[in-house]
Amino acid sequence: MKILLHACCAPCLIYPYSRLKDQGNEVTAFFYNPNIHPFREYKKRFETLKIYAENFNFPLVYDKKYELIDFLRKIVFHEAERCSICYSTRLERTALLAKDQGFEAFTTTLLFSKYQRHDLVTSLCNTISLRYNIPFIYEDFRAGWHLGMDIAKELDMYCQSYCGCIYSEQERYDKSIKMLASTNDKLKIHRDTNYVHNVSDCHQK
Q: Is 136 helix (H, G, I), strand (E, B) or coil?
């Protein structure tokens, strides 16, 4: 089967690509990630993937335009839904290209990362598949997470430290956000503990 595999980065591509190839599929990687910020980070991830494709001789297609402005216009004032918008933007483009270029199905390396919202990605892919009448190949590629990361390290491959968008970059490095998240977690534990104690007290009365 001819499959178009959306690739968010080289390390996340390793296991899904080899897995699909081992199943006898003809796989082409597609790099389309306008969410990645800043441009230097975008370029570094793309160049890493391009070098990997050249060294291991597999087909890679990509959009030469860096569509950050269009991406941000979709997100601003809709930050609470930013992951859904981000996924949909990339996956729709993948499905449309697959349909236009005669591929038999599409899938994504987003299903590999344990940091992504797996169920949301799967649901969106199924919806997009029906909308554009192009099959979506589902597999929980997270099973190969450690193998893929080990190979990436062996190849001395650049591995990014945040998802890609400007919001995730802040969440990764802004200590005030980490402190707030930690405080909220502690408050939640405190509330849950108090709730358990209160329920226990009620049963004792």
A: strand
